[in-house]
């Protein structure tokens, strides 16, 4: 299972979870024991919608504190599960995810885009 989490700093599993999604400074993809870090500008190059570019990382699951409505519905349409992040770090959120303690991201919390496309 490939889990994508937006983070403030790339410190592996100890990375602090970002309060942003598409504008987070980094994205971490955790797949089993593998942890891959990407700078936002490596992923979001301006060649499409942010969510389209983030989908290129092929996540099965997204754990986030916030997400825009277009990204929310695009990810759901692609079968990507979205969970509301709990915990300060990636390790804490992953632990809660594995224990089944994270709730699915409520659609009513998905917001209108705050940036230009």
Automatic annotation (TrEMBL):
InterPro entries reported for this sequence: Di-Nase_FeMo-co_biosynth, DiNase_FeMo-co_biosyn_sf
Chain ranges of the Dinitrogenase iron-molybdenum cofactor biosynthesis domain: 14-98
UniProt superkingdom: Archaea
Protein name: Dinitrogenase iron-molybdenum cofactor biosynthesis protein
Organism: Pyrobaculum neutrophilum (strain DSM 2338 / JCM 9278 / NBRC 100436 / V24Sta) (Thermoproteus neutrophilus)
């Amino acid at each position: 299972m490939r889990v994508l989490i937006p983070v403030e700093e790339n410190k592996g599993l100890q990375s602090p979870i970002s309060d942003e999604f598409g504008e987070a400074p980094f994205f971490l993809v955790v797949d089993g024991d593998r942890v891959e870090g990407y700078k936002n500008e490596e992923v979001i190059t301006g060649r499409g919608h942010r969510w389209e570019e983030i989908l290129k990382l092929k996540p099965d699951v997204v754990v986030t504190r916030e997400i825009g409505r277009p990204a929310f519905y695009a990810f759901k349409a692609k079968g990507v599960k979205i969970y509301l992040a709990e915990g300060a770090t990636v390790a804490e959120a992953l632990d809660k995810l594995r224990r089944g303690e994270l709730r699915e991201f409520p659609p009513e919390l998905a917001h209108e885009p705050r940036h230009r496309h």
